[in-house]
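Lab notebook page, bench 4
Experiment: in silico fold of construct C2
Operator: M.H.
Input chain length: 208 residues
Purpose: comparison with the prior construct
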Amino acid sequence: MSTILWVIIVVIAVIVIWIISAYNGLVVLKNRAKEAWSDIDVQLKRRYDLIPNLVETVKGYASHEKETFQKVTEARNMAMQATTPEAKAKAENMLTSTLKSLFAVAENYPELKANQNFLQLQDELSDTENKISSSRRFYNGNVRDFNTKIEVFPNNLIAGMLGFKKFEYFEVSDEERKNVKVSFKNEEKAPAPKAEEKPEEKNESKPE
């Protein structure tokens, strides 16, 4: 074989090896992002399962708050039906807003706030909110890595041809970042500091 032919073969081999390597790397990052989204989905489903019990518990003390209960239920249904990260984020923001209204109602019922079932649901929901937040950060980190990978040269030359598309971030509003208030435990107030007692002045009789 001529030198030129060998050079062509080597160049083709290098290109093929690079394409295989780039493809495998993108597949790994893509699967990581999908797995991270699955973690979010699990926590969101747990949240959806807690909400009906929470609503029913509050109903036992504030049955007349029908509009609030309806809004929570509708927002939950919309969130469950959302499929894409963008649509899911918008629906979750709306659901969070209605949950805040629900807890605002509960604020007016001391007996409800002391109900053991309600307290347990508070703890479970709070724990779920924290896990969603953690899973969201993990997912967005993986999405950032994948999206960057398919945008940089030379990966961007083949990413589209190989069928790789950007993932959507699971972003939330500033209002969502403020966790739903789920704690009604009374904080003990520190006793007010006692005023310092001034020593009594003794009336000493002056010597005449």
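Observations: The chain has one domain: 3-177. Residues 3-177 form a domain with the de novo design (two linked rop proteins) fold (CATH 1.20.1440.20).
Next step: discuss at group meeting.
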